[in-house]
Amino acid sequence: MAIRPCVRLCFLFLMACVALPVSAEIEEVVVTARKTEESISESPVAVSVLSREFFEEGAVNTIEEVARFVPGLELTPLNTSRATGPKMRGISTFSFSDGFESSVATVVDGVVMGREAQGFFDLYGIESVEVLRGPQGTLFGKNASAGVINVRTLAPEFETGGGIDILYGSYDEILTRGTITGPITEDTLAYRLSGSVNRHDGKIDNVLPGQDDINDKDTWSLRGKLLFTPTDSVSATLIADYVEEDNRCCLPTYRVIGPPTPAILFALNSPVLQLADALDSLGIEGGEDNREVAVLDSRILQESEAYGVSLQVDATTGWGALTSITAYREWEIDEFNEADGLSTSNVNDRNGTASDSTQFSQELRLNGQLSDNVDFVAGLYYFTQDLDAFGRVDVQFAIPFPPFFNVSTAVDRSVETESAALFGEFTFHLTDDFSLVVGGRYTREDIEADYSRVASPLIPGLPFASNFGPDLAGEQQVDDTDLSGRIIARYFWNDDVTTYLTWSRGYKGPGIDVAESANAGFLAEVGGLPVLDPEIPTLYELGAKFRLADDRLMLNTALFYQTVEDLQAIATDQFGVGRNLSIDEILSTGVEVDLTWLPNVDGLSLSASLSYLDTNIEDFSDRPDLEDHRFRDVPRWNYSLTGDYLFSVSDGWNGFVRAEVTGQSRKNTNLDDDPTADVDSYTLVNLRLGFASADDRYRVTLMAHNVFDEDYPHFVFGSSYAALDGTTRAQFLGDPATYAIQFGINF
Question: Which CATH class is domain 20-159+175-746?
């Protein structure tokens, strides 16, 4: 029997219950949101922090899981990690083109990922994840126009230690994570080695006999760190990491089945079936709870590997703390899928891309004091990236009249990006209680793209026509400069209350459209490829941070008003064709709340987050009919409630109970607000029960995710059949109810 979400929330929050020690007050959290260590309650930035315990005790392993507990952050998984971008306060760059960067920067151990998906692999050996909301380009660079996800992994230690977790769960999930650290020499050289293996069977049922289920996972990761401390004032950390995955991922299911399409009656290739007939013959019923597909498992794949090496050198000088971070990374991905979701009907048989990107970055930064009343951080940053990709779209459907179809579109493309920046931020302590922060960044960017698109018939002898226009070859070069920055006024009312007021202007560089659908006649520049203008956000934010009730209650809030000019996105133009377009202006307003509370009950800890977002299209010259519409895929409300309760079982063991409640209000994932793309509000509940030895050396945890087995889609969109009937919709579904047991040991 279904239980109303509000009843669930009340029930679970009252019983809510990570094995936290009994604490008389909330421990202060240190963040690096301004590239210097400071207390979260004093940092004049809207930042949320998830700690090492959050990941270890809760078996949290993905950015998607992180997003549920952070106000203003969302992640919408799609059919490829190349297109899965995070949204911050409703703002994101949504594009399949390799010539556009994300609006949200992903940073791992100080290294900005040129392609954000490099940072979306399994999270393991985590010290903390900081989520910074709003434009952060002053200190973090040109692809942080909406915010930053800053991942910090565990550092080497000079005391031997480590731990391992082994989890087994539904869908034969096996998750193993471990880390070991210790000295190589007594006090100058230490190491840490961390690794992860994560495998589970497909969570979407494949009804074709003998074929594996879809949306499985098979990935492993390894990271090594060496810490060298030759003197008290100099340290160097060398990091090398490697991750590899081989997944049958990711495929949507059919949600809305459109009417019969007359054109299918004239199909020259075989078999081509009406969608309803094809699904009926397979016993698949479309709908919000449909978890079935019918594909040959050889027709869906996502293989990738990423690896890199970085060297961070820290030195204390007479001018301050000098930091140098030098990094090289490479990411390769080969992904394709059965685009129509049916191997029994040959309409759109393959969409896929093989991509290889390499990047080099160098940051040189100095943190120090100009005087007793002036702190500063200043530096230089250089970044270069080379990306080569080959994409293919096969539309096997063939008819004897226009638009003919029966076409394979092959695109070779490369994008070279070079960027250099000078940045600085100064904090003026005008009084003991009042500070003024002034920062700026000068950025120069050069982008070059080569492009070649060729269309050919899939079935020789039958008529064909290109889906995306005529064959096209072109070269495009764009260079741009920008001055961005921010001003923050911060006031300490007392030791427990801090407020701040921020004005910030961000920047994300121009983009070149190198997608299969690129149209030389649409937004064409010299060189023959479409170019979209830089993305410019402007933020006004009022924040307040409180530590109350004898440091047993911490409350952080932010009220914001943010515009984005020339948001780079996919949209349908006035002729009904999907293009990479700039939305002239987006307006996002809202409020965010983070709360942590230790009631006067030993062992009980409660936390909550809440965000309200109103994100609208203010100006859209290419689609004026969409002005004043809500922006797609943005719920007004997101919330999470978490409770932990630690209790004594015996002299040698403690027990703990944890409840997690997360949810969101209704949203629509279509820019045109098509009602068939509605996603209803939903609430998810996770529960954990565990036992740990008093010295925390051994632990066992039972866990249940989505315990009420809610069917909820991440995203609803028009599938390949929608191009024929206009109304068919497919959906990427969230995980069903799952259960697991985890064993852990620390040493």
Answer: mainly beta
